[in-house]
Amino acid sequence: MECGAAAWALLERVRRSAPLVHCITNLVSMDLVANALLAAGASPAMVHSLREVPEFAPRAAALVVNVGTLSEPWLPAMRAAAAAAADAGRPWVLDPVAASASEFRMDACLGLLALRPTVVRGNPSEIIALASASRIRDAKGVDSSHESIDAVEAAKSLALSSGAVVAVSGAVDFITDGQNVIGAHNGVPMMRKITATGCAVTALIAAFVAVDPTNTLEATACALSIFGLAGELGMEMAKGPASLRMHLIDSLYGLDEKTVASRVKILRHS
Ligand SMILES: Nc1ncnc2c1ncn2[C@@H]1O[C@H](COP(=O)(O)OP(=O)(O)OP(=O)(O)O)[C@@H](O)[C@H]1O
Ligand SMILES: Cc1ncsc1CCO
Ligand SMILES: [Mg+2]
């Protein structure tokens, strides 16, 4: 795969068509998710009232459901939006934040998984927990206590059981459909020190899959690498997490063909 050229083609398509991404995401992440989508050229909308979902959902090109600050009133809207997307054949992406933190959260994630997300993106601990539908006793809340390489087998098994493409983020982001595994090698460790970078890349995946619905595996890898590359460029100017957050958004907005073509690194994983 000419990965740099493919990633640039998808970024250009996002910039040209500005897909409307319906986001039901956590309260911590809303600002970064919306700004990351805008910087990439997509159009975010945070709409989570059950009253609005039937009217609004059909207008969106893709949906993100993120359970980070899950509360009971939100769950029916998440389910309704996911079911509407699945029925209409529109891509939708699940972010199972802290899936193993409580029985309520795990049950909610498993129920959403049954509504056939196109992509599931989580950190390693979330993917390991979801794959075995179990609580992890040493889980650290929303942050991962595992490395992405340790979650590859769990990701493959979750992809096979759910039918979704599964992406596990980390030093290398691994993306699998259960058979193939590809690694997106861009990014910097400081990205973990900014809350909701994972949520933001989940939303970016939705935008990329919206413009390339027949190549979910590759589109997901391209979104992860593009976001990681924005982190690398941002890190060249940053002094710490707060300025990285700003420079990452600026870098995502300013990405050009030469940089993307030469620096995006997506490799097939054996
Ligand atoms: N060690 C690392 N090196 C390079 N990039 C990293 C590293 N760890 C995480 N990233 C990148 O940071 C972003 C967020 O990944 P992370 O695994 O921290 O998500 P998360 O735990 O779901 O985050 P959050 O819940 O705060 O949204 C991804 O784009 C990922 O590629
Ligand atoms: C810190 C935090 N708590 C619930 S969601 C969230 C944002 C990162 O997932
Ligand atoms: Mg997360």
TrEMBL record:
Entry coiled-coil feature ranges: none
Protein name (Swiss-Prot/TrEMBL): Hydroxyethylthiazole kinase
Protein function: Thiazole kinase involved in thiamine salvage pathway.
Pathway: Cofactor biosynthesis; thiamine diphosphate biosynthesis; 4-methyl-5-(2-phosphoethyl)-thiazole from 5-(2-hydroxyethyl)-4-methylthiazole: step 1/1
One Gene Ontology biological process: thiamine salvage
Keyword flag Nucleotide-binding: yes
Name of the coding gene: LOC109713476
Species, as recorded: Ananas comosus
Documented EC number(s): 2.7.1.50
Organism superkingdom: Eukaryota
MF GO annotations: ATP binding; hydroxyethylthiazole kinase activity; magnesium ion binding
Keyword annotations from UniProtKB, A to Z: ATP-binding, Kinase, Magnesium, Metal-binding, Nucleotide-binding, Thiamine biosynthesis, Transferase
Reactions catalysed: 5-(2-hydroxyethyl)-4-methylthiazole + ATP = 4-methyl-5-(2-phosphooxyethyl)-thiazole + ADP + H(+)
Phylogenetic lineage: Eukaryota, Viridiplantae, Streptophyta, Embryophyta, Tracheophyta
One Pfam match: HK
Cofactor: Mg(2+)
